[in-house]
Amino acid sequence: MTIAQNSVVEFLERLAGSAPTPGGGSAAAIMGAMGAALVSMTCNVSIGKKGYEAVEADLLAVRDESEKLRLRLTAMVAADMAAFDGLMAAYKLPKATDDDKARRSASIQSSLARATEVPLDCARACAAVIALARRAAEHGYKGVVSDAGVGVLSAYGALRSAALNVYINAPALQDRAAAERYLTEINALVASAAQEHEAVYSIVRGRL
Length: 208
Known about the structure:
Layout: H1 3-16, H2 24-46, H3 56-91, H4 98-139, H5 145-169, H6 176-207
Helix pairs in contact: 2-3, 2-4, 2-5, 3-4, 4-5, 4-6, 5-6
């Protein structure tokens, strides 16, 4: 088994385990990073191909942006775990006195905000991957355009998965104005991505 395979197996074993982290939020980040990686691969295979000279500059730009997003989403795996672990730690704080209860409540609310913001940022990054996948699907080498399709599906699944973590945490926020901002933004991202990923998928199917 290679190092890469071992890393994948280890992550999946941890994901399947009895500990709550890594969980769905980390999985969403991995899915999004996979989507970005597939967009990058579509570009990398296409760059330098005969007949694609006219779109090479755009493919280079797409590749550079998708690589930034891949690294950003990969980092969110640990960020999501830290956010959830922080929230669980806050719930375990003592509540024997009024001061204890106040500190515990403040810590829970701060942790809830973080546990909402991380998946929201994941969803934003995935929306950007979906937009890049359109350009890769339109201009990429026909032999790997199906990979751009898999990339957009990965990013869309990741975005909707991240949205679930926003939906589960935002209602518990006492700062209702912030909660409404989070929910309004995630709803808009989900709605926009639903249309865009279907459009990209249709582009891919049309080129196969």
